[in-house]
Automatic annotation (TrEMBL), chains A, B:
Organism the protein comes from: Thermaerobacillus caldiproteolyticus
InterPro entries tied to this protein: DNA-bd_HTH_TetR-type_CS, Homeodomain-like_sf, HTH-type_Tx_Regulator, HTH_TetR, Tet_transcr_reg_TetR-rel_C_sf
GO molecular function term, any single one: DNA binding
Keyword DNA-binding found: yes
Domain of life from the UniProt record: Bacteria
Protein name (Swiss-Prot/TrEMBL): AcrR family transcriptional regulator
Pfam families linked: TetR_N (PF00440)
Source lineage: Bacteria, Bacillati, Bacillota, Bacilli, Bacillales
All copies of domain HTH tetR-type, residue ranges: 3-63
Length: 190, 190
DNA sequence: AAATGACTAAATGGACAAAACGGTCAATCG
DNA sequence: CGATTGACCGTTTTGTCCATTTAGTCATTT
């Protein structure tokens, strides 16, 4: 076909969601930006929520790819997890779409956006979990509940990057790596 | 004096804040509950916010006492930190006031309540920090940034208790203690 | 067969009046 | 006379319209 209408719509919606947020984006706006009739959107997507969902699904793939690229198979497990998590959080910070949607969850709490952000978190946790499972099998780390560990790793990461800055000076990338290793790898025991 | 008017007011306000939240509580309501005129409140408290602030300040003292009681000087540092944090989180869960106010922050985001909850968090972190500082001095744990460690310990605790339950079965007290020790004390290295 | 935009029911937001609110202070009370 | 009070004030919040906008449909067009 001359033009991929579905891709046009996705591009237009991504742009508008990034710029104005989910709630403030109207389907007519998306249609205009995509140069299609409003009805056409509904031949590809069940509804507005489904449109956002598909966009986030491909964003998840993008994030996974970015994380995968940040890792180096020759390096130890822990450095790689740090690299992956750091890359993921950088990705979040740099991508207009995630920034805008996180802002929308904070400020308005749009249910559809909340749902989709949970999905993103779950995907990241599942990804880290895979890495942990492999590391356990390889004997690189102590045996542990991979799901809880992945969950906590993400929490600690976001706490160090997002929450810490609310009341203190931001931590450098190196400091974060150091802290991450201290708490998760070495532990506080002497 | 026959009746402690200030205490009456504090009791009435605590009850009303616990039952209806900060925003939904009117000063007239507090006055009625306390059996005083509305003006009397303002002879003891600068304004509504100040009233909440005093209540939280004494709550902080209560929490510290509860934590102190939960600890046992004969036990190792780590067990005590776990006991203290667990006691604090139980305290939060059981106290209607904190439950209601946390709910209000989530649902409405009342600025005054947000502020006072931050203060509560800061107090808990400062308390844990003291314990960490002592443990470092005594050589019970590795040298580390006590402020960041206290911050992370609280984060991890709340994550395990509050956030984990949102998508999984709640963890038992024993499991939490075990996890806490695993990540913070031992680390994942073999 | 694919694409469209006029159409509809439902949701939203702005304008405005009424009610409720936090905080003050002159009058009252003990 | 100092402690206490509730009527009072300016402001904010709430409720209620109604006009506009919106997501989603579907008969019509391409």
């Amino acid at each position: 076909m001359a033009v991929d209408r579905k891709q046009q719509i996705i591009d237009a919606a991504t742009k508008s969601f990034s710029l104005f947020g989910y709630k403030a984006t109207t389907m007519e706006q998306v249609a205009k930006l995509a140069n299609v009739g409003k009805g056409t959107i509904y031949t590809f997507f069940k509804n507005k929520e489904d449109l956002l969902d598909e966009i986030i699904s491909s964003l998840i793939l993008e994030i996974k790819e970015a994380a995968e690229q940040a890792m180096d198979p020759d390096r130890p497990f822990f450095e790689n997890v740090h690299r992956a998590l750091y890359r993921i959080s950088e990705f979040r910070k740099q991508h207009q779409l995630t920034v805008k949607l996180l802002q929308e969850v904070r400020d308005i709490g749009t249910p559809a956006v909340q749902e989709v952000m949970k999905k993103l978190d779950r995907a990241i946790i599942a990804y880290i979990r895979e890495k942990i499972d492999i590391a356990i099998k390889k004997g690189e780390i102590r045996n542990c509940d991979a799901e809880i560990t992945a969950f906590l790793m993400l929490k600690v990461y976001l706490a160090l990057i997002v929450d810490w800055e609310k009341e203190h000076e931001p931590l450098t990338k190196e400091k974060i790596a150091e802290l991450f290793e201290l708490y998760f790898l070495k532990g506080l025991s002497k």
